Amino acid sequence: MGGGNGAKAAQKRERNLKNAAGGAQKSQLKTNQAAMDIQCQICKATFLKTTREKALTEHATNKHTKTLPECFPTFQGDAPK
Ligand SMILES: [Zn+2]
User: How many domains does the chain have?
Assistant: First the structure.
């Protein structure tokens, strides 16, 4: 009688984990002093001239519990486009 041949199949699991982290974050924290036209009269903090009136109002309210004109008397409001 013939013998049996057992075939063994070897299973290999290959896992290729590629972490494609190609995210380059460019943060420009530098602000030109010349671009700062708005300065808080209370804490002397400077803001970009493009800062919205809303943000300035929040600063005045949250930081000093004051109104916007009290902190930024020279602020003319949001510049029209
Ligand atoms: Zn302030």
Answer: 1
The half-sphere exposure of 81 on its side-chain side, counting CA atoms within 13 A, is 0
Centre of ligand 1 to C-alpha 58, Å, is 10
pLDDT tens string for the chain (81 positions)? 555 655 565 666 666 555 544 444 444 555 455 556 899 999 999 998 889 999 999 999 999 999 999 999 988 876 566
Residue 28 lies in a domain: no
Q: Is residue 54 part of a domain?
A: yes
Count helices and strands in the chain by DSSP H and E runs: 2, 2
Residues with CB under 5 A from ligand 1 (ion): 40, 42-43, 45, 63
Question: Whole-prediction pTM value?
Answer: 0.53
